[in-house]
Design brief:
Order of helices and strands: EHEHHEEHEHEEE
Shape: globular
CATH architecture: 3-Layer(aba) Sandwich
Number of helices: 5
Strand order of the largest sheet: 4-3-2-5-1-6-8-7
CATH class: Alpha Beta
Radius of gyration: 17 Å
Distance between the termini: 33 Å
Largest sheet: 8 strands, mixed
Structural class: alpha/beta
Length: 194
Amino acid sequence: MTPTTPTYPGEATEEDNLMRDLIVTQNITVDGVIEAGDWFGPADGGPDVLEAVREQSARADAFLTGRHTFEDMRDFWPKQTDDTTGITAYLNQVHKYVVSTTLQEPGWEPTTVLRGLDDVRKLKESDGRDIVCTGSIQLTHQLIAADLVDEYRLFVYPTVVGSGRRLFVDGTPHKLRLTTSRAFAGGVVLLTYR
């Protein structure tokens, strides 16, 4: 019989190391709102925030969204011909995965349609680098509820909006561990939790 090493709640096991990390990356206000509004634009955080986003993108080879976010992005980003942020180039080349029970033809390659959270689990079990989910509030809430999120990367903007949809819904307590924090010149702070 092979001896086993005991594990403790929250501690990584050998099996955990075989799965890809699913990273939720959100732009968020100080009061926890992730719903886009006048408080946020892709380049609002400044060049150092864009550089941090590029660094994160380089560690990921899968971009996960819900159908609404996917369609909004598909209708906007491929048409940007003078984008100096690098977002268009990244989104056009990264493999996109969209969770939808109704979408048939994505129309923005490379894209794979996933039919539900079981398909997301299978994606996590496949070979590859990080899977990043950005925006997609409804999908993010489902991923959190299903305990599929490995890490949260929160770009906290020095703004309070007072209302709007939040990252964590009422009645869903979570104990997170801060792994890194990084402040940027424009007042944005990147907090990474596992």
